Known about the structure:
The complex is a heterodimer. Chain A is of the alpha+beta class. Chain A has helices at residues 22-32, 49-54, 73-81, 92-122, 127-151, 163-173, 185-195, 198-213; strands at 4-9, 37-41, 62-65, 68-71. In chain A, β3 and β4 form a beta hairpin. In chain A, α1 packs antiparallel against α6 and α1 crosses α8 (198-213). Chain A is globular and about 45 Å long. A 4-stranded mixed sheet of chain A has the order 2-1-3-4, covered by helices on one side. By secondary structure, chain B is an alpha+beta fold. Chain B has 8 helices and 4 strands, in the order βαβαββαααααα. In chain B, β3 and β4 (68-71) form a beta hairpin. In chain B, α1 (22-32) runs antiparallel to α6 (167-176), α1 packs across α8 (202-217) and α5 crosses α7 (189-199). The model of chain B has no long low-confidence stretch (mean pLDDT 95). Chain A binds chain B through residues 52, 56-59, 67-68, 70-72, 74-76, 78-79, 93, 96-97, 99-100, 102-104, 106-108, 110-111, 114-115, 126-129, 131-132, 143, 146-147, 149-150, and chain B through 52, 56-59, 68, 70-76, 78-79, 96-97, 100-101, 103-108, 110-112, 114-115, 118-119, 130-133, 135-136, 147, 150-151, 153-154.
Amino acid sequence: MSNIRITAFKWVPPFAQGLVRDLRVRWALEEAGLPYTENLLGPGEQNSAAHRAVQPFGQVPVYEEDGLTLFESGSILIHIGEKSEVLLPRDAAKRARAFTWMFAALNSVEPHVQNLTTIDLFFPNEEWAKLRRPAAEKMALGRLNAIAASLEARDYLEGEFTAGDLLMISVLRNLRHTTLVKDIPVLAAYQARGEARPAFARALAAQLAHFERNQPIAA
Amino acid sequence: MPNIRVTAFRWVPPPFQGQVRDLAVRWALEEAGVPYEMKLLAPEDQDTPEYRAWHPFGKVPAYEEDGFQLFESGAIVLHIAEGKSAEGTALLPADRAARARVVAWVIAALNSVDPDIIALGDIDHFAADEAWGKQRRPALAGMVQTRLNAVAAHLAGRDYLVDQFSAADIMMITILRALRHTTLVSDIPDLRSYRDRCEARPAFQRALAAQLDTFARHAPAAKS
């Protein structure tokens, strides 16, 4: 058994709890049935030279396994997927289709979702944000409708669950402060289906447990 | 040899010429020495049910190989890099750890660098004169710059993102091209020389020429 260690934050504010990207890696490890240990970063540690050397953007997660160090949750998922058919099918064409949905989540859906969450969570009172929001929401909605159309009557994007669904559902979760997903029944059911997986529940509980334990003392 | 078809636009306005995302796929195919055909789309083709079944967002590129279909430039580039035809081209190294590092940088380009660049492009190309665009731009340009500096810091003392030229450089360079209307890349010497080194590759030059040639052949007649 290899020694896997992931890096996550000790604590984040409530709006980010349950969304930080180590959740994607925890979920994948739980799906693959791989045990892992954790390295938790306290305030200020994310910009240390030591952390920047393994995560060029000073973010989480970092993944370590017997001397191999990786960053970017999407790439870590591909790496874990090589070990588990639950995440990436062995058949070359099916595997490429799973890749396609992973990249769709990361590069065609997440940037638009991020535009909206940046406005709502960080700049709700700025004039530019108020002016920009309607068009940003429309863009995000366009992508959500396309995903819903792709799902048709399937449970998951390619029928069976893959790492593509893991990432897509993780991205959809970032819209939990809006009704955008809820308003599209096919998509809401899809997200709920993913979140009902026991591996997801374990991953989420593991992330939240640290935030609970490391809560800053109220000023 | 597989039968490969890639979709691209027949024509786009000049600011986007040389940076539409089929460029990354053409470049990877040129590096791998794999022949391919292009299927050119007119604007009215993007939203047909047939095309949406191939590419759910109605964008380019979409990719077809002996009956199976893909979309997303990152997924297509990785698929090409994994293919038999790409063996020996080092788009994806054989060494397991180096390979994982290449995938990490492919994803870093698409998920950590590109989103801020897309947002900046949205302002510069579509909202430059709007109040929100003017108010938002300085902070956003600062965010792009922070990410570029992180990439440059990694490149210091290196020619490419991971050892040899790889799929990671194809993704990063094609994404950085969306900043050509700014000096954000050229202002960082390590990044500028990295870009010039990659863009000097014959495979890149062929891919770029092919994309630009398509646009030149389909340029709309000038309005009188």
